[in-house]
Design brief:
The relative contact order is 0.17. The radius of gyration is 14 Å and the shape is globular. It starts with a strand and ends in a 14-residue tail after the last helix. The chain contains five helices and two strands. Helix 2 (30-37) runs parallel beside helix 5 (71-89) and helix 3 (46-52) crosses helix 5. The chain is mainly α. It has a two-stranded parallel ribbon.
């Protein structure tokens, strides 16, 4: 019953198939949100966005001795990016359903 945050949920879902019956979801995809918030950005990769937004020091402090493509580091980076998207977009009072992909 928890919401999963990922940058590129399709990739993460493929990894999580190894856990049958996991029940992960619904998903907030920061890649889709970032493309909506910054359509002009040429590179919407997690690393590029976090670097451009100055989030890397915060992520490094939360995940010492880790770096990109480490599962924990990327998960924390996705959460930090989501927090920044919410802040920049001024949507902190919107229901979570508005961040979920439309079916």
């Amino acid at each position: 019953g928890r919401i999963v945050v990922a940058h590129g949920k399709g990739t993460e879902k493929r990894f999580l198939r190894a856990f049958p019956g996991h029940g992960f979801g619904p998903w907030v995809d920061t890649l889709l949100l970032a493309r909506s918030v910054w359509p002009q950005a040429g590179d919407h990769s997690l690393g590029n966005l976090c670097n451009e937004l100055g989030l890397k020091p915060q992520i490094d402090a939360l995940c010492p001795n880790k770096t990109w493509h480490d599962a924990l580091y990327d998960a924390i980076a996705s959460l930090c990016l989501l927090e920044k998207i919410i802040e920049i977009s001024n949507i902190e009072h919107f229901p979570i359903s508005q961040l979920l992909p439309r079916k």
